[in-house]
Amino acid sequence: SRPQKVCLCPFLPVHPLKVSTCLYIIQHPAEESRVLRTVPLLAACLPPDKCKILVGRRFNEDRYPELATVCRNPNTLILYPGAEATNLEEVAAMSSSPSVMIIIDGTWSQAKDIFYKNSLFRLPKQVQLKPSISSQYVIRTQPTNTCLSTLECAAVALSIMEKNKSIQETILHPLQALCSFQLQHGAQIHHSKEHLLKNGLYDKPMPKNKRKLRRMELLVNNIKI
């Protein structure tokens, strides 16, 4: 669906990756209208039955019986960082059975809204990734240097669950190409908000909302938020 000169098909795997883990991507409706999205690239790397995308803000058992069943499955994980989350590496080391992983696609505030306002998403075991890599999605501003796009989260998570590092490299390949094309055609590298604040480069007015201002102070002082 892109012009021929910036086609990303050559950077996708020739055949969908063979994985035992099934992803459920819970996508905020606002993501559908974004031109540069990572979920379509992720879906193009995986078999259709291993990457299911559900769009919405509210999910209940009546409207989404299949999702409710998935959330009650003891092998289902939800990737959402927090005090209650276990590092995914620890969970993967103790599990050998195929798993289902739920990933929320949206801005941090949108993901937070979806997670806390849908009780279904607190049924699966909550897991998180160690902040070991920086985002390569350099054409979109991230809150911190270690915040990852949905595709990057899925790539890292699948490589851990499948115990296969090459999965991460394969899924990141089209994202790297996308960013390269955009930079060649006038896009600018977007440093994280954390980087801009710490280096005095943040050129937008500081928020008047005390909660948002406090979050910025935490970023500058390197305190986990």
From TrEMBL:
Listed GO biological process terms: tRNA processing
Domain of life: Eukaryota
A Gene Ontology molecular function term of the record: tRNA-uridine aminocarboxypropyltransferase activity
Catalytic activity, reaction form: a uridine in tRNA + S-adenosyl-L-methionine = a 3-[(3S)-3-amino-3-carboxypropyl]uridine in tRNA + S-methyl-5'-thioadenosine + H(+)
Domain DTW: start-end pairs: 1-187
Signal peptide start-end: none
Pfam families: DTW
InterPro entries noted in UniProt: DTW (IPR005636), DTWD2/TAPT (IPR039262)
Family statement drawn from the similarity comment of this UniProt entry: Belongs to the TDD superfamily. DTWD2 family.
Matches recorded under PANTHER family: TRNA-URIDINE AMINOCARBOXYPROPYLTRANSFERASE 2
Protein name (database record): tRNA-uridine aminocarboxypropyltransferase
Organism: Erpornis zantholeuca
